[in-house]
Amino acid sequence: MIYFQVLFIAFIVVTALILAIMFITSLLERRKNAATKALLLIPVISSFLLLLRLPPDFYWLIISIDITFLLAGSYLFIPRMFFRKLKEETAKGNIDERTIMFSRNELKPGSERFEKYYEEFPQHKDSDEQFRKLPGLLHKKSTFYKPLPYNASDAIFKVVDGLHQHVDGKVENPPLKGSPEQFSRFVKKWAKKAGATSVGITETKGYHWYSIGGRGDRYGETIQPRHKYAIVFTVEMDHEMVMPAPKSSIIMESASQYLNAGIIATQIAQFIINCGYEARAHIDGNYQVVAPLVARDANLGEIGRMGLLMTPELGPRNRIGVITTNMPLPAAERQYDDSVEDFCSKCLKCAVNCPATAISKEDKSLINGVKRWQINSDKCFSYWLSAGTDCGRCMSTCPYSHPSNLMHNVVRWSIRNFPNFRYWAVKMDDFFYGRKSIPAKLPDWMQNN
Ligand code: SF4
Ligand code: SF4
User: Fold this and answer.
1) Is residue 291 lining ligand 2, measured as CB closer than 6 Å?
2) Residues 320 and 364 grouped into a single domain
């Protein structure tokens, strides 16, 4: 019996310790509800130790609890190698950048470009007329208007626009000699030092490239896939700025991280050009490639239900920068991680919390010959134009978005490696953080501004 008693004490102590770590972590993250629940559960769990004082007639209770713990643990933590792997769907076709919402939003009514577009795509006319009546991004009449954060965001986006002139350049030097591994190591280390969270390299595929440009002076141009390789990286969106989404901090953070990604990408592109190889940076407002697809193929993450790249470190809480180039580089072989797809099929939290009901609660469906999730971008973008921000509610509520620390990293790692744990991870996230939660307060320094 002594073994059962020791095991029982170990289970209770470990559970109470996990709750204590949860309590401290939640306090540091300013998640008061989660901290309170963890704190209240500590005495509840610890009170089970009183069972040890019961007379020997009740020892069966302790033995049953031990067996339940052992069975539950061995069921939840069966490694993924014992499960059938989901099959990855291969992307097909190219996206015409003129059809994306940002491009359509830039069309000026009455202009030749405007008339031509709706002649070619009449199916977009009615919905686009509706969103043109809305206030617009960073507009004074939008729901979450705050003068200081809105003006700051506008200023940052202007600086990002200023980087557009540096996205490419003419190669004037002979190619520098060096091995692909040497170039790769240098660029990856540099990108990380400059602030990237993760960096990868992939060969570019046909479907990475837009077919026709849709922004600025690239409008209507056929895009030629010129480069064999893509260097792609992510930068972190600050948790404290994301959690109040869709309030004004989210758009300021998006702008800041687009700028950081833009600075890293343009520097690297210019460096490669200096080394005598063609290169082009792809940054906010100036892409020739679909950045999440490139990042996915470089194994930086997977595309989740909400259509964003979900990385193992930060889930969707990131922005992406890309540099395409002909510099010889070692490309990664694609390794599909099916845990995101499986987790998303159980979670649906982004769909439940989306204020525009733009995220599907259904299973993946067949779109252009590929089974995938697709958000309703008309609904999403219309919400942005009335909110005045880029919303980000899906990002802020996603269970993968928690900060990178011991507790959340262990949970993310367990989600990846133990399929049976995923359902319970969703339930735990719902219990501690709420299934449908209220956006956090703006950071102190942004309130009353
Ligand atoms: S909230 Fe849930 S369903 Fe949505 S992307 Fe994140 S993990 Fe997937
Ligand atoms: S950004 Fe907002 S509106 Fe758009 S899909 Fe996410 S939650 Fe919905």
Assistant:
1) no
2) yes
pTM over 0.90: yes
Domain that holds residue 13: 2-76
Residue 297 · residue 290 · CB < 8 Å: no
Task: Say whether both 122 and 172 belong to one domain.
Answer: yes
Ligand 1: residues within 6 Å at CB?
304-306, 343-344, 347-350, 398-400
Taking the C-alpha atoms of 295, 297, 298 and 303 in order, what is their torsion angle to the nearest 10 degrees?
40
Cβ partners under 8 Å of residue 286, min gap 6: 164, 167, 215, 216, 218
Give the pLDDT band (50/70/90) at residue 93: confident
The best mutation among 242, 305, 317, 412 to test binding of ligand 1, ranked by most ligand atoms within 8 Å of the C-beta, falls on 305
Residue whose CA is at the smallest distance from ligand 2 atom 6: 394
pLDDT tens, position by position, 101-120: 999 999 999 999 999 999 99
Quick check: CB of 391 below 6 Å from ligand 2? yes
Final residue belonging to a domain, choices 76, 106, 139: 76
The verdict on 10 and 28 lying in the same domain is: yes
